[in-house]
Amino acid sequence: MIRDITIGQYYQTKSVIHRLDPRVKLLGTLLFIIALFSYKNPLGYALGIAFMCMVIKLSHVPVKFITKGLKGIMMIMCITVVINLFLTAGTPLISFWKITITYEGLAMAVTMIIRLILLIMGSSIVTLTTTPNNLTDGLEKGLGFMKVFHVPVGDVAMMMSIALRFIPILLEETDRIMKAQLARGADFENGNLVKRAKALVPVLVPLFVSAFRRAGDLAMAMEARCYRGGDGRTKMKPLVYKKRDAVAYIILFAFMVLSIFLGRWSVITGFFNNIYLNILK
Prior knowledge:
The protein is mainly alpha-helical and 281 residues long.
């Protein structure tokens, strides 16, 4: 389960998505998330799925490698389905005892699952196709306007990049500690919730110790190399927009226009919602 988390990992391959400017990918991810929460009908979600399939195809990242990251949110997805199925009022679909499942609840559960899946996959694509150094440079350049408000953009970008870089390292450390505890007779699966939570204490304590040790070593290494950050720091590979980045911006603009048109226009929304509910019946 721990090894299935893909956020924070980088997949080395040659593709047009890998060669894009990190600012394009960060803005594209932000616009994609905004579009997901603006959809109000199945046609909008179909557009989101088609766009995600196109990006995955162009990234040359194996679909299995991307989808295995969904295993880590299976519990969240199950809770989301249960809450929407049983707590959404509307036209009854199935009734037993004091529990009623409605058409609107089923439609909401399906849309929330699609939204979560696309959200995780879209977020994973950024880290899978962008190195930590490029991600830091893209964040620093993209948030450069906040320097007017005296925000330490360089330090914020560096902290976010380090946090993403340490996700796979800490996951591997957790997996190693759990295997060591299992070899000593620890049981993480049996017993009630309280017992299982207590069984995780021998894992969490050395994990926190290891995390603080790594943070201290990193701080000492940065200080020994005279890292200061901030204004005036030069870069070996400065970010420069190219023709493919302009094409990517045009595609993102067209995607957002279609998303707003399909996701918010009331006539289309009402029409496709009626079709959606009739199909579920």
